[in-house]
Design goal:
Subcellular location (chain B): Cell membrane; Membrane
CATH topology of chain A: Cytochrome C Oxidase, Chain A
Protein name (chain B): Cytochrome c oxidase subunit 2
Structural class of chain B: alpha+beta
Number of strands of chain B: 10
Function (chain B): Subunits I and II form the functional core of the enzyme complex. Electrons originating in cytochrome c are transferred via heme a and Cu(A) to the binuclear center formed by heme a3 and Cu(B).
Strand content of chain B: 5-15%
Strand content of chain A: under 5%
Pfam families (chain B): COX2 (PF00116), COX2_TM (PF02790)
Distance between the termini of chain A: 35 Å
Radius of gyration of chain A: 25 Å
Strand order of the largest sheet of chain A: 1-2
Helix content of chain B: 40-55%
Oligomer: heterodimer
InterPro entries (chain B): CcO_II, CcO_II-like_C, Cupredoxin, Cyt_c_oxidase_su2_TM_dom, Cyt_c_oxidase_su2_TM_sf
Number of helices of chain B: 8
Number of helices of chain A: 20
Chain lengths: 634, 361
């Protein structure tokens, strides 16, 4: 992994100009400080990205194993014995507990390690300084710690896959008492301890990252980069960081109380339990308390993974439609609305958990309100395409795919958010279909859009476009083929996390045998197609076509840096910003894009009447240069 | 239905021909394209057509797969509230499917229609407040209507159970369900205490409570048709969830916190067998909260009987105390006289299997 980074970093080092006037140390850093314990936000971003990609393949392959069981229940999995060993039982079938472990680890890995760390960690780190015009994060050291806490957490989570009693198996939500009592299932033993340790470290990592993102966005914007001139990507990273900073500590408290219950005999979540022939002494705890604490993070978590994807999509769609994003302020407003509402909808995951039904009514109201800003975002994306002049780069394809998945998965949220309808659908495949489309696949598409779009900036080379197109079409068709039919099994009442459906009775399982086989088949194809991306990504790091200065003809600041930006990002002064980032195809302008660094005084032919007032402010913006340099030299 | 399918296939056939002929035309234009522009390449039009084809075949596949799967959906709801939630579900489904279809169609058509053309410039159209307000308000109104109807139904479903409701207790454990009825003499369930659980008294029946004496347990759930039933739900070890798919009932079983759900079964087992034309059809109670190894197999059979048959079945059941007279010793002295009424004159063949629910290993 580090060699992958090192080659490109060498390019960076060679192209690096030491003539800055800011007083950073410019002695050559050793290998370890440069590539491993690096404080450079770009290196940290790449570390997050490559870790995320590796995790995605692990998480994906776990899902393929349990899809084999669900799609082909009669198939002998004896051939997996060399990998899975004892987890394949004597009859050549997947062990029933290991099935649950697979489901649990798939969820944990995908939600936290791929879509939180791999997506937000990568692009918040990479794009925030580059797009707001900063030399690096507010604290490079904390940023480095953030990655290494994540790496440590990854190692612990990964190691739990290999222990004898198996990894955590109680579902990614790890509801107690199942997760609290090692006698309830083997996965609740050491596996759960490792899970909790890993997640505690992960939360520390997220908090350090989040606080850095917020500080950087508020304090280190270049002169002229007012909040209303920030790209939507930065807005989305900002809201994501706020969400994470406020909600992850609550998950930590939930995890800590669970650790106390497991190891120190407390009864926060345990009460009146008789298990394995033994009555436990715990009294007075409430499993519902855990659910409240968990979902207080768990729901914002959905937006933590989705908002960065939506932000990047806004940028990619505007750039490649050669049109300003429609309703820039409405987009910010709806993200702000989503951020606020995200904190007060958590209990819609708990309509039928025994929570007071009155609370259910309150949360139903709040939940359906959040559909409104989400709908506004959807409409704005569609209108941005309208009368555009669309260039289908792989990033653009994935962005359009994201919008489609966001809509398709989003609309069923209106059904599930309705507590009366949730009674029958709760914990069925309808829910699985819903959140995989709207949060899993949509965010994944955002991640892919981001990688294809910013790859040239990351590695100074281009990814192969044709391979990108093939990758997109396989993935897009595949994702729909996997998750769309799950709505049907959900309506038929098939519960999730079932090893097999025989106990539904009345020959119910045979009704969807073909469908389940089809889903598994589609999942395998889709997963296999990711190999195209894998090879394209790693091949292009070394052998891709050299990138040009601004390959997508984009307006944002990152494309004004050297093709491979060195430490400090800009050689010489950081450019000033004079306009918003979406001046594409502006009437009167010769070029179809006007970068943010071009002052209005230079474009009299295309200025809108109100923009002529901005010219007066340019002097003011330029006069801030001394103060800006001062702040870096301090 | 066949007519509809036929009509749809004709429509799609025509659409398919239109799309393919259009894409052929595009391909002709393609040959003259030059690739000097790095972001734009000769595949731009193919990708645009791709979205159109995706829309076309996606719609066909969506409609076909729905029609194909529909016979396997849960049959008509067998409870009073289920009929309401089902109709609300399908109305909501129609609304969201409409929104889903319109927005996705626009997305794919715009992607196709506005594909790059060198001779055209994109329209600079950054904002339109009126549009933003319109598409904020319309979803808001639709949501408000859906929320309001949903809330009213939810309020009715979760209201207090009617006083004439039959009270039945369902207790989840790894991996099965215990069912307990209030008995033939009083309609009160006796207390239970998890510390009193032993091999025979698997529920922890508390014999210091006189309401316990006539309580009986069962390995199947019998429900009277047309009478409100109040399920009192417990769990002994970990979370479970009572799911009666055909009655559209679901409620978690939580250790240390009894929960409840009341509903009125409206279709008896026999009637449902006749409706579905399946002689061996049975309602089921499944678990829908992950609870461990045997989670997927944690099911018991549910019978909805005509009220008279239900009464007959209840009358035939023997209280736990009758089946297990040894527990008389747990009854306090002052209640012994009352309890001894349930002790058979001659010991009957102990049948403790009645409390053992289905257990899958």
């Amino acid at each position: 992994m580090s060699t992958a980074i090192s080659t490109t970093e060498e390019v960076i080092a060679h192209g690096h100009d030491h003539g800055h006037d800011h007083e950073h140390e410019h002695h050559e850093l050793g290998f370890i400080r440069k590539y491993i314990f690096s404080e450079d936000h770009k290196t940290i971003a790449k570390q997050y990205l490559i870790s995320g990609i590796l995790w995605a393949f692990i998480g994906g392959s776990l899902s393929i194993i349990f899809r084999l069981q669900l799609g082909f229940p009669d198939m002998s999995l004896e051939w997996l014995r060399p990998i899975l060993g004892e987890w394949i039982d004597e009859s050549g079938k997947l062990d029933k507990e290991f099935y649950l472990a697979l489901v649990t680890m798939h969820g944990t890995i995908m939600v936290f390690f791929v879509l939180t760390a791999g997506l937000s960690g990568t692009f918040s780190n990479f794009l925030i300084p580059l797009q707001i015009g900063a030399r690096d994060m507010a604290s490079g050291f904390i940023n480095m710690l953030s990655y290494w806490f994540f790496a440590l957490s990854s190692v612990i989570m990964f190691s739990s896959l290999f222990i004898e009693t198996g990894p955590a198996s109680g579902g990614w939500v790890i509801y107690p008492p199942l997760s609290a009592l090692p006698q309830a299932m083997p996965g609740s033993g050491l596996g759960m301890t490792l899970w909790l340790t890993s997640m505690a470290l992960f939360i520390v990592s997220q908090l350090m990252g989040g606080i850095n993102y917020i500080c950087t966005i508020i304090n280190l914007r270049t002169r002229g980069m007012t909040f209303t001139k920030m790209p939507l990507t930065i807005w989305s990273f900002f809201f994501t960081a706020v969400l994470g900073l406020l909600s992850f500590p609550v998950l930590l408290s939930a995890a800590l109380l669970l650790i106390f219950d497991r190891s120190f005999g407390t009864s926060f979540y345990l009460s009146e339990i008789y298990i394995q022939g033994q009555a436990l002494p715990n009294m007075g705890g409430s499993p519902i308390l855990y659910q409240h604490l968990f979902w207080f993070l768990g729901h914002p978590e959905v937006y933590i993974v989705l908002l960065p994807a939506l932000g990047m999509t806004s940028e990619v769609i505007a750039t490649n439609a050669r049109k300003p994003i429609f309703g820039y302020r409405a987009m910010i407003g709806s993200m702000m609305g989503i951020t606020v509402l995200a904190f007060i909808v958590w209990a819609h995951h708990m309509f039928v958990t025994g929570m007071n039904p009155f609370l259910g009514s309150v949360f139903m109201f709040l939940t359906l309100i959040i559909a409104v800003p989400s709908a506004v975002k959807g409409f704005n994306y569609i209108t941005t395409l309208w009368k555009g002049n669309i260039i289908f780069t792989p990033a653009m394809l994935f962005s359009i795919g994201l919008v489609s998945l966001f809509i398709s998965g989003g609309v069923t949220g209106i059904i599930l958010g309705n507590s009366a309808l949730d009674i029958n659908l709760h914990d069925t495949y309808f829910v699985v279909a819903h959140f995989h489309l709207v949060m899993g696949a949509a965010s994944f598409f955002g991640l892919m859009a981001g990688v294809y779009h910013w790859f040239p900036k990351m590695f100074g080379r281009m990814m192969n476009k044709t391979a990108g197109y093939i990758h997109f079409w396989f993935t897009f068709v595949g994702v729909y083929a996997v998750f769309f039919p799950m709505h049907y099994t959900g309506i038929a009442g098939f519960p999730r996390r079932y090893y097999s459906f025989t106990a539904l009775g009345n020959d119910g399982e045979s009704a969807f045998t073909d469908l389940n086989a089809f889903i598994s088949f589609a999942a395998i194809i889709t997963f296999t197609a990711q190999a195209i991306f894998f090879f394209n990504f790693f091949y292009s790091i070394f052998k891709g076509k050299r990138a040009t200065q601004n390959p997508w003809k984009s307006n944002t600041l990152e494309w004004t840096t050297p093709i491979v930006p060195g430490h400090g990002n800009w050689e010489g002064e950081i450019p000033a910003v004079y306009r918003w980032p979406y001046d594409y195809s502006k009437p009167g302008s010769e070029a179809d894009f006007i970068p943010q660094t071009v002052p209005h005084s230079a474009t009299p032919e295309s200025n809108l009447p109100e923009e002529n007032d901005e010219i007066a402010k340019e002097k003011e913006i330029e006069s801030l240069l001394a103060a800006q340099n001062e702040s870096y030299n301090r | 239905m066949n007519y509809l399918v036929g009509l749809l296939s004709v429509v799609f056939f025509i659409l398919a021909i239109t799309v393919i002929s259009k894409s052929l035309k595009l391909n002709k234009n393609l040959s003259g394209e030059n690739e000097s522009d790095s972001a734009l390449d000769s595949h731009n039009n193919s990708n645009a057509v791709g979205f159109l084809l995706f829309w076309l075949f996606g719609t066909i596949a969506g409609v076909w797969s729905f029609l194909h799967s529909q016979p396997d959906f849960l049959p008509e709801a067998a409870s009073a509230h289920g009929v309401k939630t089902d109709s609300m579900f399908w109305i909501s489904m129609a609304v969201v499917t409409f929104a889903f279809f319109i927005t996705n169609s626009l997305l794919f058509f715009f992607a196709f229609q506005y594909r790059n053309d060198k001779n055209r410039k994109a329209t600079f159209y950054p904002v339109n407040h009126k549009l933003e307000i319109i598409w904020t308000i319309i979803p808001a109104i639709v949501m408000a209507i859906l929320v309001f109807t949903g809330w009213r139904t939810w309020r009715d479903i979760t209201s207090q159970a009617p006083s004439n409701a039959v009270v039945i207790e369902v207790t989840g454990h790894q991996f099965g369900w215990y069912v307990r009825y209030a008995g033939n003499d009083d309609s009160q369930l006796g207390n239970i205490n998890y510390k009193l659980i032993d091999e025979t008294n698997s529920l922890g029946l508390d014999f210091t409570d006189k309401n316990t004496f006539d309580d009986f347990t069962a390995s199947e759930l019998h429900l009277p048709k047309g009478v409100p039933v109040l399920l009192k739900i417990r769990a002994q070890d970990v979370l479970h969830s009572v799911y009666l798919p055909f009655q559209r009932v679901k409620m978690d079983a939580v250790p240390g916190m009894p929960t409840k759900f009341w509903f009125t079964p409206t279709i008896s087992t026999d009637e449902m067998r006749a409706k579905l034309g399946k002689k061996d059809f049975n309602y089921k109670l499944n678990c829908t909260e992950i609870c461990g190894r045997g989670h997927f197999g944690m099911a018991i059979t549910v019978f909805v009987d005509e009220p008279a048959d239900y009464k007959k079945w209840v009358a035939e059941q023997k209280p736990f105390l009758t089946m297990n007279p040894a527990y008389l010793s747990k009854v306090p002295e002052n209640l012994k006289a009352k309890a001894s009424k349930y002790i058979p004159a001659e010991p009957i063949a102990t049948d403790s299997t009645a409390v053992e629910a289905v257990s899958v290993k």
